[in-house]
TrEMBL record:
Belongs to the GrpE family. Residues 43-65 have a biased composition (Acidic residues). The gene is grpE. GO terms for molecular function: adenyl-nucleotide exchange factor activity; protein homodimerization activity; protein-folding chaperone binding; unfolded protein binding. Keywords: Chaperone, Coiled coil, Cytoplasm, Stress response. Pfam families: GrpE. Residues 1-10 have a biased composition (Polar residues). This is Protein GrpE.
Length: 240
């Protein structure tokens, strides 16, 4: 018979104190002479002890749940390096996403401005014939009364939208904004020049809504004319 002391003492009040537990481990019952079966209590106690030992071993190996305790200093250094590399990788990802978002915003803003300019140009293009009528009425001193107030208000409104009128007499001819209706020789000029405006041009910023229709003066080659005159006189003298 074995005697085991499972006394558990506690200092706190109200907690139960357990005395010594005596287990009779003899396999033959001295009273009946029969072989005894293992006691259920002993089996349960052994199972509990096995579970506690297993839990202690697991806690010692794994430490905090979900975290493996490194075995060597080299492993600690390796994990630290891997963590730093991961931080750098995530930082680069964030910077790349920010750059893509910034480019997207710039592209959207650029497209919005382009759409607004196209819409404004279409509306103002429909008003150009009316502006031509106002200009002709002003040239003939017919822009007066209520018609004058309306015309000036319309011209001021389109100017606020960015519409600009161009082409004046004496401007240098520019084929990108001028449409030459005819070309005439003009003395005392060195470059092709607008000598008359049939229809003014209009633009918004760098966008030309309508080129100006003009008459272009071409410089006269004085030397050529003089040479031609001399040849004529020489011919007349030979004939004589």
């Amino acid at each position: 018979m074995a005697l085991s002391d499972n006394t558990n003492g506690t200092a706190g009040d109200g907690e139960e104190r357990r005395g010594p537990v005596i287990r009779d481990n003899r396999r033959i019952d001295p009273e009946t002479g029969e072989v005894r079966e293992p006691q259920a209590e002993e089996t349960a106690g052994d199972a509990e002890e096995a579970v506690e030992d297993t839990a202690a071993d697991d806690a010692g190996e794994e430490g905090v749940e979900g975290f493996e305790v490194p075995d060597t200093p080299e492993q600690v250094v390796s994990e630290a390096i891997n963590a730093d590399e991961r931080v750098v990788e995530l930082t680069n990802d964030i910077k790349r996403v920010q750059a893509e978002y910034s480019n997207y915003r710039k592209r959207v803003e650029r497209d919005r401005v382009a759409v607004r300019e196209v819409a404004t140009a279409q509306v103002l293009g429909e008003l150009l014939p009316i502006l031509d009528d106002i200009g002709r009425a002003r040239d003939h001193d017919e822009l007066n009364g209520g018609f004058k107030a309306v015309g000036e208000s319309l011209e001021g409104a389109v100017a606020k939208l960015g519409l600009e009128r161009f082409a004046e007499k004496g401007d240098a001819f520019d084929p990108t904004v001028h449409e030459a209706l005819t070309l005439i020789p003009v003395p005392d000029i060195t470059v092709q020049t607008v000598v008359e405006v049939f229809q003014p041009g209009y633009r918004i910023g760098e966008r030309v809504l309508r080129p100006a229709r003009v008459v272009v003066g071409d410089p006269v080659d004085g030397a050529g004319e003089a040479s031609g005159t001399g040849d004529t006189e020489t011919g007349d003298a030979d004939e004589k």
